[in-house]
Specification:
The complex is a heterodimer of chains A (232) and B (101). Helix content of chain A is 71%, strand content 0%. By secondary structure, chain A is mostly helical. In chain A, helix 1 runs antiparallel to helix 2. In chain A, 22% of the residues are buried. Chain B is mainly alpha-helical. In chain B, 63% of the residues lie in helices and 0% in strands. Chain B contains 4 helices and no strands. In chain B, helix 1 crosses helix 2. The longest helix of chain B has 23 residues. The radius of gyration of chain B is 17 Å and the shape is globular. Classes of the chains: A mainly alpha (232), B mainly alpha (101). Chains A and B meet through helix 9, helix 10, helix 11, helix 12 and helix 13 of A and helix 1, helix 2 and helix 4 of B.
Chain lengths: 232, 101
């Protein structure tokens, strides 16, 4: 026996939409009080998984697909921003407007947190705009050929492109995941041992600052307190 | 004839979970009463790294002397894999110290 598909009631859906639009109207007219904003967020919460599912095929979101909870949280921030900026006089539906804010918040979160080299948002946006304009051409050539940008901006963009080449955490993970031959493994261990030996040959203050730079606060600083003042 | 100024271009480089120079300076000042500002900390860090990279390159056999050029130093400092290696090294030292205690 075949199971029948549940039939959706279009009337109920329309009612729900209307209620949503009315709620937003009420919220904006009342000056966006907290309890009404909360209600709007709860009502439109389902928009976030919809955006994540539909736009997960894009390059950026595919990277963080496994961190769904984090993306959903960021999506709520995007929703809050949409409520803050929504304009009733434009005549659009709230869900249409909020979709882009949710997507923006998610992509911003991914690009901020999933790269070893962090780029400012204006550099990221101008790079992506250039990439969209010149899909086939090399990005470096595209930057040098455009007349809209100033020299300073061009140089920062070129530097960013150069830095981004092998900068993502995923590239490094992929490199690590490749099978190493015993020789390669030996080499990396040897480099580590040599570096450890050379690190000990540095002065106290240099060694301590290098260790602190990499978020380690374990060094015994007794020698530094005795001689540090003189050395600095 | 107009002369064009050369613009120094250096890529942005921010290490994940790293501590900035101002925090290091503040911490050293607070805990150990060492007077050094962020610029001094940066110069000490860079000089230390230069020595470390130079001597390591010499030991491995990549260069004949322990001094390296500014260009080579900049290239090494801008490679993310090098910073990964450094964080691995510092972690390794930390673990070995903890075990010895």
């Amino acid at each position: 026996m075949k199971l029948q598909k549940p039939i959706k009631a279009p009337v109920e859906k329309q009612k729900d939409d209307l209620a949503n639009e009315e709620l937003i109207k009420k919220c904006i007219e009342a000056g966006r009080p907290k309890h009404l904003v909360d209600q709007v967020i709860l009502k439109n919460k389902n928009l976030i998984p919809f955006v994540i599912n539909n736009f997960a095929q894009t390059k950026l979101l595919r990277r963080a697909k496994h961190l769904r909870d984090d993306l959903e949280q960021e999506g709520i921030f995007g929703l809050m921003e949409a409520i803050k900026r929504f304009d009733l006089s434009k005549g659009t539906k709230f869900s249409t407007y909020a979709t882009w804010w949710v997507l923006q918040a998610c992509t911003d979160y991914v690009s901020k947190n999933f790269g070893l080299i962090k780029l400012p948002s204006h550099v990221r946006s101008s790079l992506s705009a250039l990439q969209k304009q010149n899909l086939d051409a090399d990005l470096r050539n595209a930057i040098t050929e455009t007349d809209d940008l100033t020299k300073k901006k061009k140089s920062t963009l070129l530097a960013a492109v150069q830095a981004q080449k092998t900068s993502t955490v995923f590239d490094i993970e992929q490199e690590h995941s490749k099978v190493c031959t015993p020789e390669q493994n030996f080499d990396s261990n040897e480099v580590l041992n040599v570096m450890k030996k050379n690190l000990e040959s540095l002065t106290d203050i240099e060694r301590i600052i290098i260790c602190m730079r990499y978020d380690v606060d374990f060094v015994n600083l007794e020698t530094l307190t005795k001689e540090g003042k003189r050395k600095i | 004839m107009e002369t064009e100024k050369k613009i120094k271009s250096s890529p942005y480089m921010v290490i994940e979970d790293s501590v900035d120079y101002r925090t290091i300076a503040a911490e050293l000042n607070k805990k150990y009463n060492l007077s050094a500002n962020h610029a001094r900390i940066r110069s000490i860090y860079l000089s230390g790294m230069k020595k470390l990279i130079g001597s390591t390159m010499q030991d491995i056999g990549l260069s004949q002397s322990s001094t390296i050029t500014d260009e080579a130093f900049e290239q090494v400092m801008h490679s993310p894999s090098f910073h990964e290696l450094m964080s691995d090294l510092v972690d390794y030292i930390k673990k070995s110290k903890m075990e010895s205690k």
